Amino acid sequence: MKKIVYLIIIFSLVSCIIPYVHKVKLTNEDLSWITHYKINDSIYYVSNTDDTDTLIIKDIQIWNPKNTFPFDPEGHNWIEVGHEYDGIASVDMTLLHSTDTFLISFEIKREKESGPLTNSCNFCEWSWIGTRMNPNTLEIRKHKYKDCICVDIRQMERNEGDQPVIGLKQVIWSKDKGLLQYSLKSGVSYTLKELII
Q1: Which of 35, 49, 159, 175 is deepest in the core (most CB within 10 A)?
Q2: Which residue pairs from 162-168 have beta carbons closer than 8 angstroms and sit at least 24 positions apart in sequence?
Q3: What pLDDT, on a 0 to 100 scale, did the predictor assign at position 132?
Q4: Which residues are CB-contacts of 155 (< 8 A; sequence separation ≥ 6)?
Q5: Is 122 exposed, middle or buried (CB count within 10 Å of its CB: 0-12, 13-18, 19+)?
Q6: Residue boundaries of the structural domains of the chain
Q7: Better-predicted residue by pLDDT, 54 or 195
Q8: How far apart are the C-alpha atoms of 85 and 179, rounded to whole Å?
Q9: PROSITE patterns attached here (predicted)?
Q10: 118-123 contacts: CB < 8 A, separation 24 or more?
C-alpha cells in the first residue's frame, strides 16, 4: 500500500514538472501573407488623383513553434503557467499620407492545426480582429489578383485614441503582395504603385 502511495506522489510531482504546451505551427503558405515584406522597405501607393503615399515597414514579428511536440518546453510560460503557443506573424508599418502619419499593423494567427487562419489589422482609425481568412480573386485596374481579402469599414471597429483620421472606406490585402489598395470615403483610392501600368 505504501508503494502505491509513493508512486502516486512521485507521479503527481513529475506531472507538475513536465510542461505540456499546446502548439500550432504556421505553414510557409500561411507565412506568405507576411514574409514578402522586409524591415525598412518603402512602398509607394498612387491615388486616382495622382497623389503618392509612402508605406514604411517598421517591424516584422514571427512567433512560430520550431516543433509541435507537446512536452517540449518551447513556448511554455513558466511565470503565468501558459500552455498555449499559437503560430502568430505580424508586420508593423507607418503610412505617410499628406502631412499625417498613420500606424498600420497586420497579423495572422492559427489557433488549431486544422482550424482556420485568422487575420487582424489596425489600419489608421479602424481595425478588425480575429477575422477568418476567406481569400478571393479580385480585379483591380483591369487585372485579377488571387488570394485577396477585402474589408470594408462596416466589418471593422472604430479605434479609440488621438490618431488622425484618414477617412478610410475599404482595405484590400493580398497574400502575394500585402497591402494592394485602400480607399477613402472621399472616393480617392490608393493602389500599390507597381500595379499601375
Answers
A1: 175
A2: 163/102, 163/103, 163/124, 163/125, 164/100, 164/101, 164/102, 164/124, 164/125, 165/124, 165/125, 166/95, 166/97, 166/100, 166/102, 166/124, 166/125, 168/123, 168/124, 168/125, 168/126
A3: 93
A4: 128, 131
A5: buried
A6: 2-195
A7: 54
A8: 27
A9: PROKAR_LIPOPROTEIN
A10: 119/33, 119/149, 119/173, 121/151, 121/171, 121/173, 122/159, 123/156, 123/168, 123/171, 123/182
d(CA 122, CA 161): 13
Per-residue pLDDT band at 143 (split at 50, 70, 90): confident
- At 77 the pLDDT is 47
Query: What phi and psi, each to the nearest 5 degrees, are found at residue 6?
Result: -60, -40
Distance CA 106, CA 183 (A): 17
